[in-house]
Each structure stands twice: as C-alpha cells, then as structure tokens.
Amino acid sequence: MANTPLLESVDLSPQSWDLAHSIAMTLVKANTDVNELSKVTAYLRSVAHHPDAGSRFFKFMSELVRERRLHRTKQTEGYYRSIEEICKDYLESLKDNPAQMLQILGWAARLMRYYKDGGMPLGEIPPPPGSQLNSDSERPVEEQAQRLAEIAEVRDNTQFRVGQKLDATVANINGNRVTYEILGTIRLTQKEPKRAGSLSVGQVVQVAITDLKDDGGIRRISLL
Amino acid sequence: MGSQSVSSKPYELIPFPKESPKLERPAGHAKFHADRLHGTLFLTLTVQTAVHVSTGFLALGSDVGVRGIPLLKTMTTTPDQKLKIQGSSLKGAIRAMYEAITNSTLAVITNKYRSQIPPDRHPCRKKEQLCPASRVFGALDWQGLVEFSDAIAVSAGSSGGSLPALYRPRPDQRRAYFQNGKAAGRKFYYAQTEALDAGNGGTPTQQAAKKTVFKTQIHFKNLTSAELGTLLTVLGQDPNHPMLLKLGGGKPVGLGSIQITIDKIERPANLKDRYSSYVAPASDILEGETLKAFIQKQIKATQGYILPGQLKQLSSILNPTALRKPPSGVY
C-alpha cells in the first residue's frame, strides 16, 4: 500500500473546512444517519489508491441509492439520496483528489455528531463552490469583514421576533435548497422541497420568522 | 410471519456436561516442554457449500471482479484478489467445536444473559485455573498454544450470491434455549446439502463458491497428545466421527460448510536444529502413511479427554455423509 494517496498528509484549507461544515450541516438538517456517511467514506478509502477513485465513488453512491436489497429500512434510501446529492454538489470538483475528499468526508462525519448532539445552531450554509454565489471564505478578506460588519449592523439595529413578516429575495436555488437574502445582507439557506420548483432567483417573496438564534439573529423562516 | 408454515429449526443444542469443567494450570510459553508436542499443521480447506465471511464493507461488483452484481457485501481478499478467511474466524469456529466436545467453559458471554448461564460455564478468569479449551486456545490475559494463519484461496476470483433474509435469534421466545432458567447448551447449525440463493430477494454478497480451495497453517506448541488429538478430531480427522467445519454467514440457509484435509504435519525432532536452519529436514515432515499413523495415535490418546456423548452429537450435526436439506420455508 506504499505510495497511496492515503498516506499523503493533507492540510485542510479554509475552503475545505467550509465544505466539511456545509456537508455536515446540510446532512443534519436533512436528518441523515451519520453511519451511512461513514459507510460511503469507508468505500472511498478502500478504492482511494485507484486512479479513478473519484468516479468510482460517485458510481458507488448512485448504485447505493438504486440497490434496494441493501436498504435496511424505508428511510435508508432517503439517507443515501441526500448523501449522494450533497457529495455531488460539494465534492464533484475534487474528484481527482481522493485524499482531500476523504479528509473532508471524515471531518463532515465528526461535525455531524457535533451539530446534531451538541445542539449547535445551524446557520447559513455556504453554497457549493462553482455555484452562482461563492461562499464567504472565497471572497477577499476586506469584503468578508465588510459583510460581517453589515450583518452585525443590521442585527444590532433590528429587533427580530418570531412571527415577524419580512420581504426576502431568492438569492440562489440549488436542488431543493433555497437561499434567501433578507434586508439586503442576511443570507439564509434552507430546504424547500415543496416550493423550490416554483421559485426563481431574484424573486421577492414574503417570509415569516419561525425561530431565532440566541444572539437574536434569524435561525429559521417559513415561506408565506 | 403470518400464516406461512414455519420449518423446523436447522440447528441443535448440545447440552453442557453435567460435571463442572476441571480447571488446571496451563502449559504456558516459558519453554518448549520435551514431553509435549510442537509443530505445524498444513491444511487444505475445500468449500462444500458457498462461504461468506463478511467484512462490513460494501463495494461495486466490478471492484471485486464479480460480474452481474452492481453492489455487494464483500469478503476479505489479498491484494491480488484471492479470497481470504481470517485466521480469527477459523479459530472461533474451531474453538466452539473443541469446547463442545471437551468439558470446557464458554469463551465469551454477553452481560445480558450472564445470569442465565450456569456459573461453571462462565469464561475462565484466573490465569492459573483454566478449562481444557482455554488452555489450548487462550483466555482473558492468557495466550493460547495454537496460532491460526489466514486461509488464502489457491486461485484468484470469487463469485456472487444472494443471501436470504435471516431473522434474529429469539432466545426469549423459544423455550428450547433454556432449561430451568439456565442456558441449555451450545448451538450448532446442521451441515446442509446446498446453500440457498434468494435470487432477487436477498442481500447480494461476495462468496467463495463450492469447490474453492483454501490453504492455511496452524502452529501448535506444548500440546499433549490428547489436546492435539482433540484438535485433529475437530478438524474432521477421526474416521469414526467425520465432521465438516461450519463457518461464516448464512449457516441456517446452508452456507459455510468446509471440508478439511491435512496435507502434512511438520514436527521438529530437535527444536534447536529446526531453529538453526530455514528449511525443515525431510525427517521432520509427516506425510502419507506416517501422517495417518501419527494422527491415529493422537486421536487414540483422546480417550477420557473427549466426552463421547457430545462428540457423537456434534458429529451427527456436522457429518458430511448425512447432510440435511436446507429448510425452504420461513424459520
């Protein structure tokens, strides 16, 4: 097994950390079983020394969704489906770097437990690389600082409360995940399985706040 | 389960002997005792009904060279794609049989059923006081006298099969498991004529097909003739009590029967000379008639050590000449 990519040490870049966090948060939101993520990671590890490890991995996942004889309960298919979706969104661009994919998936599994059992509030999930909106960490530092300041200003000046109605702009749609932009600065991504199809980017919609974070920020909204 | 007819269970319980096991001081590893036996058994394992020892990994059929199955549960393989049965799996199956025909304790118990296991069958805990099986195979904090190597298939390649759905054991619902509130004995599945295949309805698995041949070795040291004879009996070498090994997943539906033959035994006449050279002198290798005579001698020495009643029962469950058909219904 010498010279396999597994033995190379990979330092995760801030972007990769973002990916791991995003994968973990999205899967926790979709109520996915962390053991199933570990199972697909184990497969990737077992083929990581092959030159086509990335494409084998994606083929494996699509078979996993399809092969019902390996599903233990009715929920298993849903788990595999959301894992496949999120991996396609976030890891397709790293297809040729299985060592990095493994690191990200490994951390995503650990972070899933952290977000699920640690009661960590789930905030805005950075969209996948290459989508219309880049994640915060890929913006220049000054721009990030400016954006954080804007968010803080809006938060400090605005007292949100549960039930409050607001205008929101649809900033991005990815599958059934919709990113809303509220008051021009706050971005919030959540799943809208029933409504995503009928929305379009740039559309202004009315939303109501359904849950607040401890610091007074918005945790969840519902589309009216 | 509904109204489907329930087939009889394809296993039997071999009751624990009435007498408590005799706990003795083990031979240990500090030195090679001149009056005891040391050496290596060279074994050939021939698969009688498909074998599947699971790894827990899933893989694409194309990854493991099995055609026609997109995704399956894998077995362990060598880097050059030869199937492998882990030494630990072999050891477990062989130890269970050894325990059943000698007056031994259980090797492992779960806490859930601790109170229902007769106290004299609890695993040995004192290093100096071990039951017959623990003296040979080891106990907690105590290394055994036999070492198992992985069994490697002679040629590359494997086949795929579909494992029928199995239900969990239901000791609490089934009275046969307990007598007077205590565990009734050890459970062994029958050796069966064929391995069932569930077609499109079961779990796709990588399997060692019928007639696959594996090779392995067992090293032994400081064994008495009776202990080695018992090990050879368990390996099916007693012509009066032939036995197959039953190993891996799917035992209730006919999988996992393996026939063992002993190719040769290496038994160094002089340990100092043996460890001074790489190759064993020809005089140390027992083959053909000398091998047969040696095996017979050891098996004879097991009188009074093996429990005849238990041996008869185990041999009738695992007898290769009286195989049962796997049950077809739900069980």
TrEMBL record, chain A:
Tell me what this protein is called. Answer: S1 motif domain-containing protein
Task: Give the originating organism.
Answer: Thermostichus vulcanus str. 'Rupite'
